[in-house]
Amino acid sequence: MSAAVAPSAARAWLVILLVAVSGYGNYYCYDAIGPVADLLQQQRGFSDAQIGLLNAIYSLPNVVMVLVGGLLVDRFGAPLMTLATATLCLVGALLTAFSPDFYGMAAGRLLFGIGAETMGIASLAAAADYFHGPGSRVALAMASLLAIGRLGSYSADMSPTWFAGAYAQGWQPPLVIAAVMAATSCLAAALYWWADRGPRRAGQLPTSQRAEAFVWRDLLHFGRAYWVMLLLCVLWYAVILAFRSTFSIKYFQHVHELDLATAGEMNSYVFLAAVVATPAFGWLCDRQGRYAPFLAFGALLLPLALAILALTHWNLWITTVLIGVSYSLVPAVMWPLASRLVSAQRLGTAIGLMWVVQNAGVGGANLVAGWLNDRAGASAANPAGYDGMMLFFGTASTLGLACALALWWTAGRRHHELRAATSPGHAAAG
Ligand SMILES: NCCCC[C@H](N)C(=O)NCC(=O)O
């Protein structure tokens, strides 16, 4: 990948801003189901399995589509694919908001999911386009995209407070607001496509084949540490996304007796903390040159918080802080660590596979949690019905912690990480 003259810093950051606004709408829509879960149950008679399915159906097709999406981004470029996927997300969000029945809503979430995950890949590719070469701030650019995405999740959780009037009218107006966010995302994507035309025509962006395509035979070259991290990725994301983005608000309403707005706010602070803390933790790890211990600490906080939630009536702020730190620390460390465990030419394959398995895990966890809640009759009248779901999430996150400890022990000790710093992509691959 080479380009004659790099685009100006102003142009590069303008592009990041537009892509970030696009990502904001994407994350808002993803998290729009949690706040209406209880309303969907009360007003439309949806079961927990159906609510879980509305988010599972986002993830499951992406077990394949993430790979196809990566190839399409390579083939057609990040700007066009951002615009195309943002449009698909808008169609999905409209279908979700205006469908007369569950099947239409599920079809909407399916389309939205197919668009949203490929948009995530296109966003990373946009950052790589504009920040390449020695001394570039690609990590900061990617962390900024992630941080603005978290702001979208925060806004979705705050929406019962910010748009109380809409929620008072029922399940539909909040989903129409989500569709408006998707439209904003589409507009930002169109502006990015337009802003990119100049530098691209001037040959200022990398043009040769990306190194990020998925190559099956690369899998043979990944060391044990990579596979352990992949397991951690699937277990940790399955719990955090199925819990925080689907069931936690309803759980807070039914088990901890919060009203909808307070439950949404309590959930939202996790995302708000992540807006600032994700880039800050990334910076800290880079500075210390240590990754695995931070990752293990982040992975420990999740089962700890779930145990406190399930077994005590301690102040919910405690668990919010614990999950907030975990949600900031683990992604801030995991993706840079991936780039240290595999060589640069295999990074696309490495991350592609992690997203494939992650989507399978998140989809599966949503379905299992919904099924467990329905089987036990979980509701405000029967809060103990949520015990099975909490046990499931607790077990999965504890297994995730075991993977993080194994990673630290086998490839993340100080001497391993020092070696990796001088020979990136190889030293810690054992
Ligand atoms: N939009 C919420 C799901 C994002 C899943 C995506 N595959 C991913 O891992 N993104 C990185 C992150 O930490 O959000």
TrEMBL record:
Higher taxonomy: Bacteria, Pseudomonadati, Pseudomonadota, Betaproteobacteria, Burkholderiales
SUPFAM superfamilies: MFS general substrate transporter
Role noted for this protein: Lysosomal dipeptide uniporter that selectively exports lysine, arginine or histidine-containing dipeptides with a net positive charge from the lysosome lumen into the cytosol. Could play a role in a specific type of protein O-glycosylation indirectly regulating macrophages migration and tissue invasion. Also essential for liver homeostasis.
Annotated Major facilitator superfamily (MFS) profile domain residues: 15-414
Transcription is among the record's keywords: no
Membrane topology field: Multi-pass membrane protein
Reaction catalyzed: L-arginyl-L-alpha-amino acid(out) = L-arginyl-L-alpha-amino acid(in); L-aspartyl-L-lysine(out) = L-aspartyl-L-lysine(in); L-alpha-aminoacyl-L-arginine(out) = L-alpha-aminoacyl-L-arginine(in); L-lysyl-L-alpha-amino acid(out) = L-lysyl-L-alpha-amino acid(in)
Localisation per UniProt entry: Lysosome membrane
Assembly notes: Homodimer. Interacts with lysosomal protein GLMP (via lumenal domain); the interaction starts while both proteins are still in the endoplasmic reticulum and is required for stabilization of MFSD1 in lysosomes but has no direct effect on its targeting to lysosomes or transporter activity.
Homology family: Belongs to the major facilitator superfamily.
A Pfam family matched in the record: MFS_1
Keywords associated with the record: Lysosome, Membrane, Transmembrane, Transmembrane helix, Transport
PROSITE patterns in the record: MFS (PS50850)
Membrane-spanning ranges: 12-33, 53-73, 80-98, 110-131, 176-195, 225-246, 266-284, 291-311, 317-338, 350-369, 389-409
UniProt key word Transmembrane: yes
Protein name: Lysosomal dipeptide transporter MFSD1
